[in-house]
Known about the structure:
The protein is an alpha/beta fold. It has 14 helices and six strands.
Amino acid sequence: xxxxxxxxxxxxxxxxxxxxxxxxxxxxxxxxxxxxxxxxxxxxxxxxxxxxxxxxxxxxxxxxxxxxxxxxxxxxxxxxxxxxxxxxxxxxxxxxxxxxxxxxxxxxxxxxxxxxxxxxxxxxxxxxxxxxxxxxxxxxxxxxxxxxxxxxxxxxxxxxxxxxxxxxxxxxxxxxxxxxxxxxxxxxxxxxxxxxxxxxxxxxxxxxxxxxxxxxxxxxxxxxxxxxxxxxxxxxxxxxxxxxxxxxxxxxxxxxxxxxxxxxxxxxxxxxxxxxxxxxxxxxxxxxxxxxxxxxxxxxxxxxxxxxxxxxxxxxxxxxxxxxxx
Length: 326
């Protein structure tokens, strides 16, 4: 395939994080096929195509699909854009006649396209926005969940997905404030529960918003399934690159690659060391990469990003790891 002279659009609504580092990890050779599992505004897909790859891009957000048609058209046939969840990438690439690929890139979590658009209901700074938070724009909204779940379920969700130590107090305040309709309603409930000091660098409702978003979009489940799917479709020598933005995501990726590369930690007298019964499906992962100060200065949302990458061996894929988060 002839390389297509594309580059990330300077006015794109979402600035891809660690773009050069992700491209280095993918080590694209002209004519290869790569998956961009989180298309967004197309930053990774453009860069892949510019290096001569055939790109199968995936996004669950219908807005991204509609707005991405211009990127597809400009690619001259190099980019194919499919609507769906990257957790289903094996099925999705099958729709375009593929069974395996040379690389997979995933940029996990919420994008600027979500955070900067008030009607999507992701951001604290739009207090009158509907409490939605659905990436796919389908299914139960954040308001639906918070208005029907009991106090215990909400508290458990806040603790598990937001690592919120005051989860029970916040859950009681949410239940007492129902019905919730806007992002401002949710923020106000959190502020009533745990307070808010003038000059706080981070809004105390941030962890709650993160937790609710992860719950509504089943993000950790999708990440686990997506890693399994990437393992299944990568050819021997294929490259996996995953960018995460908080410890829950990063822990899943780190532990997945540790297990799949045979780097499982040694056991103890309480947990004897497991005998290796399966060949590693990935070589030892590359060292984790984080954004430079220069990138953070240009794009503050990159601050918490971590890139983990590894190269596929020729071993058969393992059984799905769904649920192995520890």
